[in-house]
Amino acid sequence: MGTLILYATKSGATSECADLLAQKIKCVADDLGKTVPDISSFETVIIGSGIRMGKIYKPVANFLHQHLDELLSKRVALYFCNAYPDTFQKAIEKNIPAELIQSAVCVTSFGGKPPFTNPANMGWLNTQALNDFYTALGNDA
Ligand SMILES: Cc1cc2nc3c(=O)[nH]c(=O)nc-3n(C[C@H](O)[C@H](O)[C@H](O)COP(=O)(O)O)c2cc1C
Fold it and tell me: 51: CA distance to ligand 1 center in Å?
């Protein structure tokens, strides 16, 4: 009855955020590009993806569609790493099933790495969004 983090990344931002969340919440983070774990025993599932060309990453898109009914029965929080805040809402509406957006405790962007850069630190991270995410998860995560 714990929390599991699932994510997909290409440039590393989403996995760096998964590590931060896993340290804070004290739970495991799995890369959906490498493994697709059984979520049945978890009460809360946090799912993270990067966004490129307006699309979330395939391992996450596939997981959301294949496990939609199961996810709708759990506490789900979604975070994304993307560089262009103005396009975020549209990307979410296009990529995420509407009923999952509705039932999730939080759907947010943590910011992302500007394309084709390799920042030395996490200066791109929207720390306010991260704190709001923890708040939305509450103490049950
Ligand atoms: C080829 C490419 C396309 C991108 N397309 C978008 C986009 O459509 N919207 C956006 O907000 N950010 C876009 N970005 C920025 C990424 O979302 C950002 O680098 C983020 O950190 C990606 O997550 P990841 O580091 O976990 O792979 C793009 C970056 C690259 C390299």
Answer: 5
Letter for the amino acid at 83?
A: A
Asked if residues 37 and 66 have their Cβ atoms less than 8 Å apart, the reply is: no
Note the pLDDT tens digit of each residue in 66-111.
Answer: 999 999 999 999 999 999 999 999 999 999 999 999 999 999 999 9
Stated pTM of the model:
0.97
Identity of the residue numbered 107: V
CATH topology of domain 3-140: Rossmann fold (3.40.50)
Cβ 49 under 6 angstroms from ligand 1? no
- The Cα–Cα gap between 130 and 103 comes to 19
Would you say the CB of residue 12 lies under 6 angstroms from ligand 1? Answer: yes
C-beta neighbour count of 80 within 10 angstroms: 27
* Element holding 29 (H helix, E strand): strand 28-31
φ/ψ of residue 59, rounded to 5: -60, -35
**Which amino acid residue places its CA nearest to atom 3 of ligand 1?**
52
Residue bearing the CA closest to ligand 1, atom 13: 52
